[in-house]
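Hi all, long-time lurker, first post. I run a small reading group and we've been trying to get comfortable going from sequence to structure in the token notation. Rather than ask abstract questions, I figured I'd post a concrete chain and ask someone more experienced to write out its structure so we can walk through it together at our next meeting. Sequence below, copied exactly:
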Amino acid sequence: MTSATAGGTSPVPPARTRKSVTGTRRTVAVLFLLPCLVLLGALVVYPIGYSLIRSFLNQSGDGFAGVDNYKALFTDDGIRTALKNNVIWVVFAPTVATALGLVFAVLTERVRWGTAFKLVVFMPMAISMLAAGIIFRLVYDQDPNKGVANAVWVGVHDTFAKSSAFPNAHPGRQSPLRPEKGGFLTQQAVHAGQSVSLPLVGVAPDKMPGGAKKAVQAPSEPGKVTGTAWQDFTRGKGVGRLGQVDPGELGYPGMKIEAVKDGKVVDSAKVRADGTFTLSDKADGARLRLPASNFREPYNGVDWLGPSLVTPAVIGAYVWMWAGFAMVLIAAGLAGVPRELLEAARVDGANEWQVFRRVTVPLLAPVLAVVLVTLMINVLKVFDLVFIIPPGSSQDDANVLALELYRKGFSEDQPGIASAIAVFLLLLVIPVVWFNVRRLRREVRR
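-- Answer (accepted) --
Happy to help. Here is the structure in token form:
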């Protein structure tokens, strides 16, 4: 084909087939992308569209419910608790995990075994949420003999405030003791040269302290008050004499005895392994008291999975898993920070804290934003840990939107409300994703 021009005729070049930016013909690119597009439509677009439509239908799905399902999001107590907990998750879990990752990444640059430390911290990422939930269900067990958290907590507590070996001890029949402020007090005053009997019962034989020996009746001593505190119980019907030390009965070693006169403690003593004790002449005319500290119940730790602490406890398990993820990404970003800037700040007189706060953190801001946004999206969908760790008695208090979606859709057979929760979760995620996409585009333009 030719066209007329001022100088004659010239050939018209044939029309070109449009190509993509990679040089591939668009039709070929579409053919290769078609299977992915089909899968994307089947697994993402269709479920979103179906959930949106289903959220406006009634429970059976054959009638239009309007916005009733969406009203339930703000009127149902379970959903409101889940929404409140989701806010707590979004605020605290990503922040704590990112902060720990930042600290770990910065500190491990300064130690020789930093790589090994990073490996240990990152290792929980290799564990599934299900396995992590089972692990932390055991970690948070109330029994200090099973739960690691309470074993440590009880150990620290007992270091400063030891529990008593006789929490269930109490006076038996015909005892000279009467209750007083959590402990026991003799009904009559004692005098120097007198030997006092303080019989108690209530401690199981297998719960007696290992150092307890066979009790003996303390002999009287001039100018002193002596006595015996012992387990006044002998196995077998009709065996033993009430209020008297019998063979085989054990003393209460370590029990504290106070001499109280006019409301003041004038003397005190500890019971020996054989149950005997001795007070000075200051106890003359006083009454003997077994203070409440002798009967303090053993400290059983913290109720980690109770209503008040269950959400922070589950967040702790999440941070344990994801702090390594944050650390690895931040460490990668830290490797790209120009060392000249850090050295220049130190030369200018900045200390390490100022270098970290004024130089390192601002330079890592893009990486920190990536980690924070990624974890925010992740915690909006958290389900496994909240489903596994809390016991049935406190699962309602730990509830989150993803778990409530599951419960409404399968346990309570309310698919309309479950679909509304799914759409609501999508709406919560979209702004975070949009912010992340915008930030990534700005990074590309730079």
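A couple of things your group might point at:
The beta strands are 2-5, 8-11, 177-180, 183-186, 195-200, 225-231, 256-261, 264-270, 276-279, 287-290.
DSSP finds 13 helices and ten strands in the chain.
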